[in-house]
Automatic annotation (TrEMBL), chain A:
It comes from the Bacteria. Signal peptide: none annotated. GO terms for cellular component: membrane. InterPro entries: Cytochrome_b-558, SQR/QFR_C/D. NCBIfam families: sdhC_b558_fam (TIGR02046). This is Succinate dehydrogenase / fumarate reductase cytochrome b subunit. Keywords: Membrane, Transmembrane, Transmembrane helix. The chain crosses the membrane at residues 65-86, 112-132, 170-192, 213-235.
Automatic annotation (TrEMBL), chain B:
It comes from the Bacteria. The keyword Ribosomal protein does not apply. GO terms for biological process: respiratory electron transport chain; tricarboxylic acid cycle. InterPro entries: 2Fe-2S_ferredoxin-like_sf (IPR036010), 2Fe2S_fd_BS (IPR006058), 4Fe4S_Fe-S-bd (IPR017896), Beta-grasp_dom_sf (IPR012675), Helical_ferredxn (IPR009051), SDH/FRD_Iron-Sulfur (IPR050573), Succ_DH/fum_Rdtase_Fe-S (IPR004489), Succ_DH/fum_Rdtase_N (IPR025192). The lineage of its organism: Bacteria, Pseudomonadati, Bacteroidota, Flavobacteriia, Flavobacteriales. Keywords: 2Fe-2S, 4Fe-4S, Iron, Iron-sulfur, Metal-binding, Oxidoreductase. GO terms for molecular function: 2 iron, 2 sulfur cluster binding; 4 iron, 4 sulfur cluster binding; electron transfer activity; metal ion binding; oxidoreductase activity. This is Succinate dehydrogenase / fumarate reductase iron-sulfur subunit. Residues 151-181 form the 4Fe-4S ferredoxin-type domain.
Length: 238, 247
């Protein structure tokens, strides 16, 4: 019984949700450090550095394994969330005439499904804009050789041009900021909730986990959101 | 004070219910909420109407019988109290009060505001006990030393009266606070260790079988619990279950 319980029970769903969610938090940190290279001035070789980094991220075998784990995590996290929502709706077939969850819970904790859907939609759009272009799209014509003698595709120029576009650049930056807001709210509940689900709850550490969660939920999405605006308004035009 | 009451009326489990509006007058501030309901029922009986059915027993906050959803919150707007301990001074003259049964698939309505909470009994029966042979050689419980901290936490978990407010308050109608309290009260004591793995696995299995929703850590249960049962218990159950599952 024990083994099957770990796959099917209500608690198993919590473990998977927490485990994949916390792993995706780590992914966010890694992704953010990569993105911060976009803040480097064009004149200081930003194009070569970013493109070499992009080449490394798409070809290194270890990163490749990590990226598959990330895709699986997103998939598991989303499917688990959908199953959870369906199951939980069924648990109260007849609703209340008057129900005041705002008196005892945070908005984000009650709307993880909606926030998650927004985030999933963002991931699809985001990946089709950059990742798919890099992998399958029109970037083949932009292969060039860097100062190190490596042949790379020019993801840097695509990224910078997207957000510097006179017509749509600012709209994209705002759309990305909205998605980051959704991620921020999702994290404000998800980060500490993940620890609770895995059984990490102790009066001594709860305050620290909660505060770290809030700091993470504000700082990481904020840093992500700033980059497109920086590219649009501050970075020299290419 | 004079009040307008909107109350869920349902003849039995098979009929459809509806909200019915009643007026009550001259309600004293010092009355408990259930005394106010008694006034309404006497009024209904004297008119030859069917009184409103609601659960109650000890009326001092220890039996866990009373269970009304009042203005969108289990046991009403006050914190740390059951419906019988809620005083009418928490309301104002002229207020409209909406009174509903606790809603969950696992808590079907029997009549009006009375719901069937035997799902909790079945969860308890699935493992919420310790087996002790009473053959005459039973060891004195006090001969086994228990850390003070664990004894206290076990006692706090054991103060759960099984009223079902956690399920009623949860947007997912999850019973994890109840189940975790019943798991914790034994998991923290040496007497409960022998059956620890079997207990948590069976109680969670029964909880899932009863059709309760899944916990998403919103924390509504902890806030609405009349006994202040902590979310720490759910985390402990998560740990106990993980430990028992991988063995």
């Amino acid at each position: 019984m024990a083994k099957s319980a770990l796959l099917k029970s209500s608690l198993a769903k919590k473990y998977w949700m927490a485990f994949t969610g916390l792993f995706l938090c780590l992914f966010l940190v890694g992704h953010l450090f990569g993105n911060l290279q976009l803040l480097i001035p064009v004149s200081e070789g930003a194009r070569d550095q970013f493109n070499e980094y992009a080449l490394f991220m798409t070809t290194n075998p270890a990163v490749k394994i990590l990226s598959y784990v990330t895709y699986l995590s997103i998939l598991f996290h989303a499917i688990d969330g959908i199953l959870l929502t369906i199951h939980n709706r069924k648990a109260r077939p007849q609703g209340y005439v008057s129900f005041k969850p705002s008196t005892n819970t945070m908005w984000s904790s009650r709307n993880m499904g909606i926030l998650g859907t927004v985030i999933l939609a963002f991931i699809v759009v985001h990946m089709s804009m950059f990742w798919a272009e890099m992998k399958f799209g029109g970037l083949d014509e932009t292969v060039y050789t860097t100062a190190n003698g490596e042949e790379v595709k020019d993801l840097y120029t695509l990224t910078i041009k997207t957000f510097q576009d006179a017509q749509y650049g600012l709209i994209w930056a705002i759309a990305y900021a909205v998605a980051m807001l959704a991620i921020g709210f999702h994290l404000s509940h998800g980060f500490s909730s993940g620890f609770q689900s895995l059984g990490v709850n102790h009066p001594k550490y709860n305050g620290f986990i909660k505060k770290t969660g809030y700091a993470f939920a504000v700082l990481v999405p904020l840093a992500f959101a700033v980059i497109p605006f920086y590219i649009h308004f501050v970075l020299e035009k290419i | 004070m004079n009040l307008t009451l909107k109350i869920w009326r349902q003849k039995n489990a098979d009929t459809k219910g509806k909200m019915v509006t009643y007026q009550v007058s001259d309600i004293s501030n010092d009355m408990s909420f259930l005394e106010m309901m008694d006034v309404l029922n006497e009024q209904l009986i004297s008119k030859g109407d069917e009184p409103v059915a609601f659960d109650h027993d000890c009326r001092e906050g220890i039996c866990g019988s009373c269970n009304l959803q009042i203005n969108g919150e289990p046991h009403g707007p006050d914190r740390g109290v059951t419906t019988c301990q809620l005083h009418m001074r928490k309301f104002n003259d002229g207020d409209t009060i909406i009174i509903e049964p606790f809603r969950a698939k696992a808590f079907p309505v029997i009549k009006d505001l009375v719901v069937d909470r035997s799902a909790f009994d079945r969860i308890q029966q699935a493992g919420g006990y310790i087996s002790v042979n009473t053959s005459g050689n039973t060891q004195d419980a006090n001969s086994i030393p228990v850390e003070k901290e664990n004894a206290d936490m076990s006692f706090y978990a054991a103060t759960c009266i099984g009223c079902g407010a956690c399920v009623a308050a949860c947007k997912n109608a999850s019973a994890m606070l109840f189940t975790s309290a019943k798991v914790s009260q034994f998991a923290l004591l040496p007497q409960g260790e022998v059956e620890a793995d079997r207990r948590v696995l069976q109680m969670v299995e029964q909880m899932d079988k009863e059709g309760f929703g899944n916990c998403t850590n919103t924390g509504a249960c902890e806030i609405e619990c009349p006994k202040g049962i902590s979310l720490e218990n759910i985390a402990r159950m998560n740990r106990e279950y993980l430990k028992a599952s991988i063995k």
